[in-house]
Every structure is written in structure tokens, then in C-alpha cells.
Amino acid sequence: MLLDLLESIQSFSLMVYHAARYCVTNFRSREVLIQMDRIGVGSVPIVFLASLFAGLDMALQFEVVMAPYGAKALLGKVVATSIVRDMGPVMASLVMSARVTSGIASEVGMMQATSQIEALSVMGVDPVDQIVAPRILSGIVMMPILSVIGDFLGIFGGLVIAFLAAHIPAPLYWSGVREALTLPNMVNGAVKPLVFGFILTSVGCFYGMKAGGGAAMVGRTTTRAVVAAAVWILVANFLISKLLLNLWGNEG
Amino acid sequence: MIEFENVSLGYGDKVIVREITLEIPDGKTLVILGGSGSGKSTLLKGVLGLLHCFSGRIVVNGAVVDSLTQNELLSYRQRIGMVFQEGALFDSMTVGENVGFWLWEHTDMTDSEIEARVRLLLSFVGLIDAINLYPGELSGGMKRRVAIARAMAPQDPLVMLYDEPTTGLDPFTSKSICDLIRQVQKEFGVSSLVVTHDLQDAFRVGDLFTFVKDGTLVVTGDRDAISKSTDPFVRTFLAI
Predict the structure, then answer these.
(1) Residue A250 above 70 pLDDT?
(2) How many CB atoms lie within 10 A of CB B98?
(3) What is the pLDDT averaged over residues B33-54?
(4) Cβ-defined contact of B91 to A110 (cutoff 8 Å)
């Protein structure tokens, strides 16, 4: 059990190391662009919907809690802080894990099951170079962009509730949002998607490369990949939050 | 020339083929026959350097496969034409991209030169009209043909390896694939290793034959030698 875990950690580390090396030494622009389109552009609609409704719901809940204390005017700041620091990147990443991690794990897993990975090796091409490196790089590049889109939509959702349900004037809401966009909060919101983009794609690739056997095995591997990615995103979110809180204090 | 010198191969600690000695002369096709799980495909993986020998050595045109460094192994594999079971074509690429992949990866040829070579190879296997199709749009036989064209992409392959090239195909398509394998061998003069469990196809493509049972060679020789073998396993195989 422990040996298996150590072996997995070693394999994962080696895969990531080689992928990072290939990103520098053998940059595959065409493959990276294709993956950026699939991972990034293809995920815009689902991030759009998830973030919008998360923002709507968050504002609704905060408004209920804050109203008795006469703190409704702070709704913009509270919603924006929550979204930019935490909920935006986490929500977008969790939704993305269902789409991107599962997609990568099943695609790479099927390639493994149908000997396409072996064919690459036989043709003198390292599968990590052709398959893993472009996907990880695309995830790291596209996740922050998707996160910004998600943040904006979440804040916009909050505005809808603030205006329609809490009857807060839009300028007051926006001034609260502006107050929330401090450097510590922005750094928080920028660092997390980078790490989450890495987790989403590397975990998908790792499980896909380990898949063997037929369709049933690929299915099981895909499920494991999605669960692992979701758990690691939440763990990483906590660790980054803690690290940045220690660094910045409670500013923001 | 491909030489197996007292070779034992396997996965992890499990030995699949034991102390095999075999020689495939230049320009000849050796067919490895045997039942499922007998170790036929394992021998191909040994030639490709995907598995390390537990004992003995595999020598291909003077190169000892196990002693190659990682970079040498990559270069060596670039000159091995391998046709996988069911083709193993890259799903995300068109037929043309599959065939041209090796050339894009390992040569300085321009796009137009690559396209010309791809067209030539696809004409050779009779699939020039499928150049823009994806593997998912091809029949089983077409996939094998594309796989053969892809395996021939290097200008000077040292050897061609075929892993169950006709499995799952109807008799007509099987025969056409066998004819194609024969044509490749004649026109390019490469040594070939074909793994199959189909005796009829074996006799269509092979110059030499070897039977593998439980990881060991039962008998090796030309068609006459095989036909005259008194080994009960071979007699049973021939009688089926």
C-alpha cells in the first residue's frame, strides 16, 4: 500500500518533470493551441453558467445573513471578496474537473487501451512530450483566464440579487466590489487558478497514462481521476489560502 | 537480420518466453504462430526494446537492443515499422496526419515533401481517397492498411513487425492485407516478423515459420519443415 503510494508519487513527479522539460525544449505550438481551445474555449459556457448561479446564490445567502445587522451595503464587498479570493477559482476548477479532467483521463486512457501510447513510443516520440506537456501547459494558461471570466460573472450575479432582492443601488454595490479588489485578493485569485489548472490537467494525464485494459477500466480510471482532482483542488485551495494569509495577514 | 540469442522475456517478475534462439535472415518474413497468451507479441516487444531480456540478447542489424541508451533506443525505434493489432491509429489525426506523423517528427522535410510521401504511401496501400478521413470513419481493413502505410513512412525501415495484422477481419480483407504485407516485403526487401494465430494467413505471408507454445519454440522452419513436423502441438494446430 505504502509502496504503491510512493511509486505513484515518483511516477507523477517524473511525468511532471519531463513535461516541464518538454515545454521548454520541444514546444508544440499546434498541439498547445488545440488543447487551449478544447480546455479553455470549450469550457467557457459551463464556467459561465456555474459562476453566474454561484454568484446569484452567494448574494442571496449573504443578504439574508447581513440584513438583520444593517450591513446590506457591504454586500458588494463581501460577494466580490469571496468570489475573487476563493469561490471563483474553486467553483470554476471543480466544474472544470468534471469536464476537463474526465475528458483528459478518458481520452488518454483510451489511447493507452488501444495501443496508441505504445505506438508513439515505437515511433520514437515520448508520449509525455506529445500528450502530457501540451495539456498541462494549456491548463495552466487557460484556467486563470476562465477564472477571471467566472469571477466577473459571479460578481455580476451578485449585482442582480443586490439590485432586485436587496434593493441596493448598483453604484453602491460596485463601490463595494472595487474595495474588494485589493492586491492581496487579486494575488489570491491569480495564484490559485494557476495551481488548479496544473492539478486538473496533470491528474487527468497521470490517471489516463496508468489506465489499462478495456472500456470498463478506462471508466473506473476516469472516475478516480475526477475524484482525485477535486480533492487536490480543495486541499491546494486551503494550503494556498493559509500561505497567503500568513504572507499578507488579513489585509483585503 | 534479427537474431534472438537464448532470449527470456516477460513482465515484472513473470517470465513469458524462455530461452528462445531464432534468426530471421535479411529480406525474409518469419511468422510466429501459437495460441493466445503463448508469448508471440512479447517477442515483438522485445525487438522494439519495450521489454528488457531477463537473459540472452536480441540483435537487430548488429545492434544489441538491450544495450542501447534511451536516446539510441528512440533512434532505433524510428527505423522499426510496427503494425499494431487493430492499427493503433491516432484518433485525433486524419489518415494523412497519421501517415505523415513520423516524417514531421523526425525529418526536416517540408510540408509539401511530406504530403507527397504520404500520398505515395497511401496510393501504395490503395487508400489515397481516405487521406482526409479520421480513423473512426474507416473499416477494420482500411485501418490496417493505413497502419501499414504509417509503418512504412521511414524511408529505410530496418524491419517490419506485424502484430496480428488480420485479426477480426473477414477472409477477403484478410487476404488483401496478406497480399499487401507480401508486397511490402518484396518492394522494400526488409526483414519482417509477423505474429498471428491464423495458419492460412501465415502461409500467405511467410518464408519461415515458428510455433510458440507456453513461451518456448516448438519447431522452426520453412513450410515443408512445418508440414513434416511430428510434434503433437504442431500437428494439432495444422489439423484445425
Answers:
(1) no
(2) 26
(3) 87
(4) yes
Strands (DSSP E) found in B27-168: 29-34, 55-60, 63-64, 80-83, 159-163
**pLDDT greater than 80 at residue A251:** no
Q: Which residues pair with B33 in a beta bridge?
A: B196, B211
Please check whether residue B219 is in contact with residue B231, taking contact to mean a CB–CB distance below 8 angstroms.
Answer: yes
A113 membership: H or E segment, kind and range? helix A102-113
Using the beta-carbon criterion (under 8 Å), do A124 and B82 form an inter-chain contact? no
Question: Of B80, B91, B105, which has the smallest distance from its Cβ to A125's Cβ?
Answer: B105
User: Residue A148 in contact with residue A40, Cβ under 8 Å?
Assistant: no
Tracing cell 501517415 back to the chain, one arrives at B99
CATH number where B136 lies? 3.40.50.300
Q: What is the count of structural domains for chain A?
A: 1
Written as nine digits, the cell of B84 is 499494431
Q: Name the residue type at position A42.
A: G
pTM of the model: 0.85
Q: Out of A111, A122, A125, name the one closest to residue B48 (CB).
A: A122
Q: Tell me if chain B has a CB within 8 Å of the CB of A7.
A: no
CA–CA distance, A102 with B43 (Å, rounded to integer): 35
Give the one of A111, A118, A124 whose C-beta lies nearest to B105's C-beta.
A124
Strand order in the sheet with B29-34: B80-83, B159-163, B191-196, B29-34, B208-213, B216-221
| Chain A CB within 8 Å of residue B151 CB | no
Question: A115 and chain B: CB distance < 8 Å anywhere?
Answer: yes
| Residue B50 forms contact with A (CB below 8 Å) | yes
The domain tally of chain B equals 1
The mean predicted confidence, pLDDT, of chain B is 89
Region A170-177 average pLDDT: 92
Mean pLDDT of B63-91: 87
Residue percentage of chain A with pLDDT more than 90: 65
- A111 near B CB under 8 A: yes
pLDDT tens digits, residue range A4-36?
A: 889 999 999 999 999 999 988 888 888 999 999
Distance of CA B20 to the CA centre of its chain: 18
* DSSP SS3 for B85: coil
Neighbouring C-beta atoms of residue B62, cutoff 10 Å:
7
CB contact under 8 A, A115 and B85: yes
Q: What is the ipTM of this complex?
A: 0.83
- B105 contact residues in A (CB cutoff 8 A): 123-125
Instruction: Flag whether residue A114 sits within 8 Å of chain B, measured between CB atoms.
Output: yes
Chain B CB contacts of A104 below 8 Å: none
Our measurement of the distance from residue B138's CA atom to the centroid of its chain's CA atoms, rounded to an integer in Å, reads 21
Identity of the residue in B78, B84, B105 whose CB atom sits nearest the CB atom of A119: B84
B7 is in which domain, residue-wise?
2-239
